[in-house]
Amino acid sequence: MPSAPTRPSAPLEVRLADDAPAVLAVEEPDDPADWAFTHREALRATVTEHGAVVVRGLGIADAAGFAPVARALAGGELMTEVEAFAPRSAVDGVYTATPWPAHEQMCQHHELSYLRTPPGLMMFACTVAPADGGATPVASAADVLADLPAALVDRFEREGWRLERSYTDEVGASWADAFGTADRAAVEAYCTAQGIEFAWQSGGGLTTSQLRPAVVTHPVTGRRGWVNQIAFLSEWILDEDVREFFLDEYDARPFTTRHADGTPVAEEDVATINEVYARHTRRLPWEGGDLLLVDNLSTSHGREPFSGPREVLAALAEPVVVDDSHELRRHS
Q: Where does the record place the TauD/TfdA-like domain (predicted)?
């Protein structure tokens, strides 16, 4: 990353539409990382204002080109993913997309919002645009919160939501992959520090449970938003045969979301949440070289079904401490 801007940062003029994220069209610079560093403050302010911005014209072609741009926008080192749900490779701090069947919709969610320190900024770069579909839709957490049924919001806001996971070698990331270590003592220390209940299973697996806030106040704007993964990590997104397999084989599901007292989140509530998300999503078809910046505490993202090759890289930055005990206490 350059040590100082090479030219003054000009105000950014974005194109706005009701059904799409803000778009900033630029002429491809000689050095995209230098451009990103020069315009970082103005661009970050624009992302805070609009929730998400597509930068079109940077010409990002691969991970080697994306990584310095991401670090320039992050103003330092990128975050290392922890408690991941699926193993994915990383190149210089930049991750491949989360494995997900191309024909299935990936529900709206706030990345790693079950952490006490989730990323505040998500960055996505499209190096290969899909032939059809595959957009990364976004939605305002504040708008979703305002549109959800009051009774549903009230309970989750007062009590929070619980994520339960059962780590196995059959699906998703193993516990060693998710926590970045095969040292059980290190995993236990991490879980204890993060307020995660854990239990080792006789076959070598691990089960965890963690309580997190469902409604979060944005640290800059002060707006309250529906910031969680209650629907995305619900057992109801799994096919029935997959759910039954894990119950029969492991007496546990790979993941599920519950109320604070451990009672299941009803299938109809998950459907309602996803219906509200659908009413508020904005989308723009990917073009090769695009950069999408998402304020992870104000804006959710997902992935639409697609056909043909699709390569989208991701980078995480600006960790934000979410004081879950404080958030839950405020609304008790």
A: 31-313
What pLDDT is attached to residue 7?
A: 46
For the segment 27-49, the average pLDDT, to the nearest whole number, is: 96
List, for residues 132-158, the tens digit of each pLDDT value: 999 999 999 999 999 999 999 999 999
Backbone angles phi, psi at 180, to 5 degrees: 70, 20
Alpha-carbon distances of 316 from 6, 12, 81, 106, 226, rounded to whole Å: 25, 23, 8, 19, 20
- Which SS3 state, helix, strand or coil, does residue 115 take? coil
Quote the tokens at residue 167: 């780590």
Supply the DSSP string of 62-89, one letter for each residue: SHHHHHHHHHHHHTSPPPPP-S-SS---
- In eight-state DSSP terms, residue 238 is S
pLDDT bracket for residue 330 (50, 70, 90): very low
Taking the model in full, what pTM does it have?
A: 0.91
Mark whether 155 and 71 lie in a shared domain. no
Pair (166, 260) in one structural domain: yes
The range of the structural domain enclosing residue 311 comes to: 15-140+282-321
Residue with tokens 């993060």: 194
**Does position 237 have pLDDT exceeding 60, yes or no?**
yes
Q: Are 2 and 37 in contact (CB under 8 A)?
A: yes
d(CA 128, CA 144): 31
Q: Which of the residue ranges 162-176, 245-259, 264-278 would you say has the lowest mean pLDDT?
A: 245-259
**Both 33 and 68 in a single domain?**
yes
**Of 299, 311, 296, nearest to 122 (Cα)?**
296
